[in-house]
């Protein structure tokens, strides 16, 4: 069967096809033919005995389409490994190193680099978004693209800047083509961001947009209902005040919601004024 359509697509049409399929960046300089990679030996598989008994037959080694180092453990195992690993990280640096070496989330294989955090780990306020996009993947820092510029203005609206705020994402690797992270990917990354929040220990946690809010504040309500309300976030060692507000990318698409967002920010500023930090 011939799979190449007639007439054969030109380069422009092929690129348009890739873009539509979510392939919007090159991972390496040269193409890699996964199908021609050498066989990885696999253990002989015993074949069930029948009557009369036959000798155990060895099944020929199969060719994995993905190199073994890129095969993540099954989601349930990865979640358990992530929980155990994140729990043991004594510092943010240790947590970052753990994530650098963590093989449980396949997003790591398609991302350029880990996007751990930006800002001040001593900050009294922490913002958490969903996942890095293209600009963040290139720079290795959260919220540096267009929505990052708006986040900077939101932070400035409460009299702060990145030197007085800490910024991270629920997912620290860019999903290919900016697709929505799967529920499994979110669950695998969740113990790490939870530990990150516990270690930063801010007075106020701000979740940006629906995915971050629903994941961290354990609610199924949409952002229109959750925004502007105070939640208790239990870090495991302390309960901190948390508020959801619109994701800056959403505000770029729907600027009429900026007014509500400024209301949320005013409430956040007031809470910061009222909250006395344990370290101050
Ligand atoms: N959107 C996010 O949720 N996080 C980023 O870091 C950038 C865009």
UniProtKB/TrEMBL annotation:
Keywords: 4Fe-4S, DNA damage, DNA repair, Glycosidase, Hydrolase, Iron, Iron-sulfur, Metal-binding. The keyword DNA repair applies. Signal peptide: none annotated. It catalyses: Hydrolyzes single-stranded DNA or mismatched double-stranded DNA and polynucleotides, releasing free uracil. InterPro entries: UDG_Type-4/5, Ura-DNA_glyco_family4, Uracil-DNA_glycosylase-like, Uracil-DNA_glycosylase-like_sf. It is an enzyme of class 3 (hydrolase). SUPFAM superfamilies: Uracil-DNA glycosylase-like. Gene3D superfamilies: Uracil-DNA glycosylase-like domain. Its EC number is 3.2.2.27. Residues 116-266 form the Uracil-DNA glycosylase-like domain. GO terms for molecular function: uracil DNA N-glycosylase activity. Belongs to the uracil-DNA glycosylase (UDG) superfamily. Type 4 (UDGa) family. NCBIfam families: UDG_fam4. This is Type-4 uracil-DNA glycosylase.
